[in-house]
Design brief:
Blueprint: E1 5-6, E2 11-18, E3 23-24, E4 29-32, E5 37-39, E6 44-45, E7 50-53, E8 59-61, E9 66-67, E10 72-74, E11 77-78, E12 83-84, E13 89-90, E14 95-96, E15 101-102, E16 107-108, E17 113-114, E18 118-121, E19 126-130, H1 133-141, E20 155-159, E21 169-171, E22 179-180, E23 185-186, E24 191-194, E25 196-198, E26 203-204, E27 209-212, E28 218-220, E29 225-226, E30 231-233, E31 240-242, E32 247-248, E33 253-255, E34 258-259, E35 264-265, E36 270-271, E37 276-277, E38 282-283, E39 288-289, E40 294-295, E41 299-303, E42 306-311
Parallel strand pairs: 1-3, 2-4, 2-5, 3-6, 4-7, 5-8, 6-9, 7-10, 8-11, 9-12, 10-13, 11-14, 12-15, 13-16, 14-17, 15-18, 21-24, 22-25, 23-26, 24-27, 25-28, 26-29, 27-30, 28-31, 29-32, 30-33, 31-34, 32-35, 33-36, 34-37, 35-38, 36-39, 37-40, 38-41
Antiparallel strand pairs: 2-20, 18-19, 41-42
Organism: Desulfitobacterium dehalogenans (strain ATCC 51507 / DSM 9161 / JW/IU-DC1)
Protein name: Isoleucine patch superfamily enzyme, carbonic anhydrase/acetyltransferase
GO molecular function, one term: transferase activity
């Protein structure tokens, strides 16, 4: 008999294959594009994590692997019995062996291969040693001293988001109420408060929080995507302006900035108040754009804090992990 524990506040979108005894905690979101997510038996996804699979890079997770709070996994393959710290980011095409341990906040780059029984830390992640017997004992203890792997038992969930579904919540703040274009779509678990304007054909994904309270206005242009579990806010006497055709990846924090048109901010990035990103900018995953930073058009920026690492010579297409 299948035994799944999926919290009511989670959102499972697309065709997702779940093994027996999978646990998905509050606020976590799994989005499968064309049948591209498989979780093994007894794996756990803890609070406010985001897992996305794509046809180019399906997301596959082995048995008894545990993802910490606010993990972001996009198109990775992760083995059995892995212990993954809070805030870890796996990027498309990365391949993780069995029984690996990841320190909190680690970023695994695109296409990176991590062998079995590795301890990995850093941004980008680096293997610092092989597992010790003490590490293996910890992995076993965290699983009730049972690291045996049972035969995979599959349960398929298929839940496509549709235009007819309930839209997200809009809240008044003072005399201000969000203004949302009729052609925009707000996923049901998104919440938008106060002085916020959202333009034509924009998409606000599951778990997103956009707060336009007494601090200042939030202006979101046309054909913008704000992806899962991102938060938009700002400091007093400021404004947050997102121009047309921008993509904000999952798990980002965007605070009181101006983001030029056709920019992509990849997963888990933080953009701070009074900063400015030019048009057609690419912000790499996990970057921190400091307060009052200014970047010209067509820049590739990365780091903690972020710096320009090159010029973006082509007009960007929306990435494959974005919403259709």
């Amino acid at each position: 008999m299948l035994n799944l524990k999926i919290d009511d506040s989670t959102r499972l979108i697309g065709k997702i294959r779940l093994g027996n005894n999978v646990y998905i905690a509050q606020g976590s979101i799994l989005r499968s594009i064309n049948d591209s997510i498989t979780l093994g038996n007894s794996s756990w996804i803890l609070e406010n994590s985001v897992l996305i699979g794509t046809p180019e890079h399906p997301l596959k997770v082995g048995g008894k692997t545990i993802f910490g709070h606010k993990s972001i996994v996009i198109g990775a393959e992760v083995g059995d019995l892995c212990e993954i710290g809070n805030g870890v980011i796996f990027l498309p095409g990365s391949k993780i062996g069995n029984m690996c341990i990841f320190g909190e906040g680690t970023i695994i780059p695109e296409g990176c291969v991590i062998p079995d029984e590795s301890v990995v830390v850093g941004r980008p992640g680096k293997t610092i040693r092989k597992l010790t017997q003490e590490d293996k004992n910890m992995i076993s203890r965290m699983r009730g001293n049972d690291i045996s792997l049972s035969t995979y038992i599959e349960h398929i969930i298929h839940n496509e988001a549709k235009e007819s579904e309930k839209m997200g919540k809009l809240y008044e703040y003072g005399a201000k109420y969000p203004i949302v274009s009729e052609s925009a779509f707000i996923y049901d678990s998104a919440e938008i408060t106060g002085d916020v304007t959202i333009g034509h054909h924009s998409l606000i994904a599951s778990g997103v929080k956009i707060i336009g309270n007494s601090h200042g206005p939030v202006r979101i242009g046309d054909n913008v995507q704000i992806l899962e579990n991102s938060v938009l806010h700002l400091l007093p006497d400021n404004e947050l302006i997102i121009e047309d055709n921008v993509t904000i990846g999952p798990g980002c924090i965007i605070h009181g900035t101006t983001i030029g048109s056709n920019t992509i901010v990849e997963s888990g990035s933080i953009v701070c108040d009074y900063s400015k990103l030019g048009k057609n900018t690419l912000v790499k995953s996990g970057s921190l754009v400091k307060q009052r930073s200014v970047f010209d058009d067509n820049q590739i920026i990365e780091g903690f804090p972020a710096q320009s690492i090159g010029e973006n010579t082509k007009i960007q297409n929306r990435p494959p992990w974005a919403l259709a």
